[in-house]
Amino acid sequence: MEKETKKDISKETMDRMPLLYRDSLPEEILKELTPEVRKQYFLWDEIMKREIELYPRLVLPIVKELFQREYPGDGNIVLLSTEYTVSRIHEKGEKLLHAIRSDLLLRIQSDLYHFECQIEKDGRMIFRMLEYDIHIALTHGKETDKGENMPQEFAVMFPKSAVLYLGDEGNVPAYETCTLYFQDGTEHVYCIPVMKVQEYSPEEIEEKHLDILVPFLPVRFRKQIGKLTGKDGKTDEAARERVKQELTEFLLECKAALIHEGEKGILSESAWKDIWEYLWKVCGYLLGEDTALYGEVSAEVEPAIKLSREIIAELREDIQGFQESNQELQESNQELQKSNKELQESNKELRESKNVLHQELENACRRMIDEAIRDGKSTEETENMLIRVFSLTKKEAEEKVKEYRKNSKT
After folding, report:
1. How many CB atoms lie within 10 A of CB 303?
2. Among candidates 223, 209, 280, which has minimal Cα distance to 47?
3. How many C-beta atoms surround the C-beta of residue 300 within 10 A?
4. In 198-352, at which residue ranges do the beta strands (DSSP E only) sit?
5. How many angstroms separate the Cα of 43 from the Cα of each of 37, 46, 127?
6. CB atoms < 10 A from the CB of 59, how many?
């Protein structure tokens, strides 16, 4: 009985899945999604976000391509929170709070950039972008100080936004637009550029250093893969072989582009290998219904059998890396020992200085007490002098006068 209920919930959720790309996900739908469906929904923006977290510099060519803005390679790039709480009127008239989540929001130096990863064509995308950008602007773009570039006392700066369209459908506009009409009679065309990822070849990706897009390039085979099995459940073997060959060749082109970027110093070795791994995660999703085809393509692109010289070369690299790490550890240990020795010497000097100061204070107190006795000062007057001159407490002053008188008698 429990299995049947779970099946019904899953089916209901899947029936509502077309809404996922037309509006933000309400929390109640998110809770119903199975781990696999959640993984598919968040796959695209999570890969992009992870790439930027690991290698922030990779987003700069995207910014240059979309907005013709260039920043230094070591510019300050910060990922910002993308979740906002908004109120909506439910169909029954109830006012409810919902969480909306944009895909990527980052600050480069003082500029805000907002990107949405989209896999399907969506007629309501511009409204989602507008809603996100309003919340982003009110959260991160408010200005209240007058300045040379800000003649008004209050201003709201919108982010530079774009849609990264990852799908392979045609007739996608170059811009998402919406006209805003204001109460004073003015109007403004809200215009968002669209980057059509599948229009870029691996060669163009390499030329423009758009390496962050490489994991999403296999999406262009999505329709071909979806047509391999007919409604009767039979596989078109000729089409399957054709997809296998074309996908293999394409993946090899992608790998070559990444390796070239590594050789030119655009990508570190870890960067291009991580991007390559993300590409295979996308391939695993696309070929999830045909694991055999995934294995065959993988065997063509990443040979399962390695030559002895390849294994030896990898072992040498591992040994060299271990030796370098060991050397760095030894150097760090030497520096630590040196720092510890310097700290011990500093502590010794500090103790000596403290002893000298203490002795000088004692001598000065004794001289003052001597002078007070010669001048006929009372014990209380002497103590008050010590308190005033040396900032002693009442108890400390009493002890010093008492000790001096005791030593004088002996």
Report:
1. 10
2. 280
3. 15
4. none
5. 10, 5, 22
6. 21
SS3 call for 116: strand
* Rounded CA separation 158/161 (Å): 8
Is the distance from CB of 117 to CB of 166 less than 8 angstroms?
yes
Q: Are 101 and 81 in contact (CB under 8 A)?
A: no
Least confident of 50-64, 148-162, 328-342, 371-385: 148-162
> Which of 47, 58, 156, 63 has the alpha carbon at shortest distance from 113?
63
Token digits of residue 10: 């899953």
Q: Which residues does 220 contact at the CB level (< 8 Å), separation at least 6?
A: 168, 198
Say which residues have a Cβ less than 8 Å from residue 258's Cβ, sequence separation at least 6. Answer: 211, 214, 267, 272, 275, 276
- Written as six digits, the tokens of 232 are 């009767």
Separation of alpha carbons 287 and 233, rounded Å: 16
Provide the 8-state DSSP code for 158. P
pTM, full prediction: 0.61
Inform me whether the pLDDT recorded for 179 exceeds 70: yes
